[in-house]
Design goal:
Blueprint (H helix, E strand, L loop, with lengths): L2 H9 L14 E5 L2 E4 L4 E4 L2 H4 L8 H13 L10 H14 L4 E6 L2 H16 L3 E5 L8 H5 L15 E5 L14 H16 L7 E4 L15 H12 L2 E5 L26 E4 L10 E6 H4 L14 H16 L2 H21 L4 E7 L2 E6 L9 H13 L2 E2 L1 E3 L6 E4 L7 H17 L2
Parallel strand pairs: 3-13, 5-6, 5-7, 7-8, 8-9
Antiparallel strand pairs: 1-2, 2-3, 4-10, 9-10, 11-12, 12-15, 14-15
Length: about 425
């Protein structure tokens, strides 16, 4: 055990997870690579949990942070903040929500917490619809709507949560159905559920479930849900903490794959927009955002430094068409990984879009989740010089692959080759 690991254990909670048998200290990064304390270089296919969205040490972002820090680091939302207003204007326009208002937080957890506050206040209801296999953060209210037992340490809750089918396409009671039948069955389930309960405030859903293992429904499911929700006056919250900013390649926001009946009422974001800086936020229609009848501020949300980083990062993303790069390079990477998976008895499915890819591992010859194999591949990939993540529903048996959106084709090929060798090492 390293000295730093020993010190970490002495002062950190037991439940604060670390990857790897011998945890890694990352000292610096550049582009799509990071280095550890021993000077070893790794190709980064996880980006600090989908947070280093464009590139490590992106000059445009580090310059913006340095220049802003040299002027003023902090003021709070009690004062006018030019970078915050400028970033809010851009996000409001990009969100697709009409007459949008933007509130900045410091994390996706806090963003979802705020969205729940808005929805329950606006609708005067503490009932929330959420998806099975979902994850929405680590606060008391966010944990209470999380449909993933591995990340839900308590059943106590300020909310009554009702879980809906549909977030996982290839498992569960409707997995055998075609896409159209799958959507119809999930809609019928939602209709039936609403017949047994008081009127909920909102449905919160990740268009692609992140911690759940990059699972998703067929395109159009949430548009079909929206028709039901609208009849009941129920709001739709799209949790875009992991799917936003073009990561899926095909769309800028995950909700756009389900946009037939318009944008969500509330959209939450975080992670990638700050490229490592702590930014989260909520976008909502003005009448929803303005429904609170008490004062509120954010001490650290909308910090001048983080807003400067967000502006620089968003500009780089758009000017260099990183959404298009995610579509092109991600498509190639998924093809390579599916070819590799076809030759492995422990790979049940390779799924995803753009640079948001999951490899589900099972015990050979069965459909049972194989968390031991996922842990072994994680270790083997590190030994090969590649960092990836893991997640999943009933068990943590999905490899999560989400590189910075500037990933090149040679880097995608290199990462796929390392993963192929890591999968071979576990059978």
């Amino acid at each position: 055990m390293s000295s730093l690991h020993h010190r970490h254990l002495a002062v950190s909670p037991d439940w604060l997870a670390l990857y790897y048998r011998h945890p890694l200290e990352i000292t610096h990064g550049e582009g799509r690579h990071v280095w550890d304390a021993d000077g070893r270089r790794y190709l980064d296919f996880f980006g600090g949990i989908l947070t280093t969205m464009t590139a490590h040490a992106l000059p445009e972002v580090t310059k913006a942070v340095s220049e802003q820090a040299g002027r003023i680091i902090h003021s709070s939302t009690l004062y006018l903040n030019r970078p915050m207003v400028e970033l809010a204007e851009r996000i409001a326009t990009l969100s697709g929500i009409p007459d949008a208002r933007v509130f900045f937080t410091t994390s996706g957890t806090e963003a979802n917490d705020t969205a729940l506050l808005l929805a329950t206040t606006y609708r005067r209801s503490n009932q929330i619809l959420a998806m099975r296999n979902s994850y929405h953060g680590r606060s008391f209210s966010a944990v209470s709507i999380t449909g993933n037992n591995s990340w839900s340490p308590t059943s106590l809750s300020p909310l009554q949560t009702l879980y809906v089918h549909g977030g996982v396409r290839t498992r569960g009671p409707y997995a055998h159905l075609g896409d159209g039948e799958f959507i119809a069955a999930c809609v019928a389930d939602l209709e039936d559920l609403l017949g047994h309960t008081r009127a909920p405030a909102a449905l919160i859903a990740e268009p692609i479930q992140g911690v759940g293992g990059f699972t998703s429904p067929p395109d159009g499911l949430y548009a079909a849900f929206r028709e039901v929700l609208n009849r009941h006056g129920i709001l739709w919250i799209s949790d875009e903490v992991q799917t936003g900013w073009g990561r899926s390649g095909e769309h800028f926001w995950g909700w756009q794959a389900h946009g037939r009946n318009g944008p969500p009422d509330i959209l939450t974001f975080a992670k990638g927009i700050g490229n490592g800086m702590s930014i989260g936020g909520v976008v909502a229609r003005a009448d929803v955002m303005n429904c609170l009848d008490a004062n509120s501020i954010s001490t650290f949300g909308g910090s001048p430094v983080t807003m400067a980083a967000g502006l620089a990062n968003l500009s780089y993303l758009l000017e260099h068409d990183l959404q298009g790069n995610a579509r092109r390079v991600g498509g190639l990477l998924i093809e390579r990984l599916r070819a590799i998976g076809a030759g492995s008895e422990c790979v049940r499915e390779v799924r995803g879009r753009g640079l948001m890819i999951g490899i589900e591992l099972v015990e050979p010859g069965t459909g049972r989740a194989n968390p031991a194999a996922a842990a072994a591949v994680l270790e083997a990939a590190r030994e090969g010089g590649l960092l990836i993540g893991k997640g999943g529903g009933h068990d943590t048996s999905v490899l999560r692959i989400a590189p910075p959106l500037s990933l090149s084709i040679p880097e995608a090929e290199e990462g796929a080759a390392i993963l192929a060798e890591a999968l071979r090492s576990v059978g």
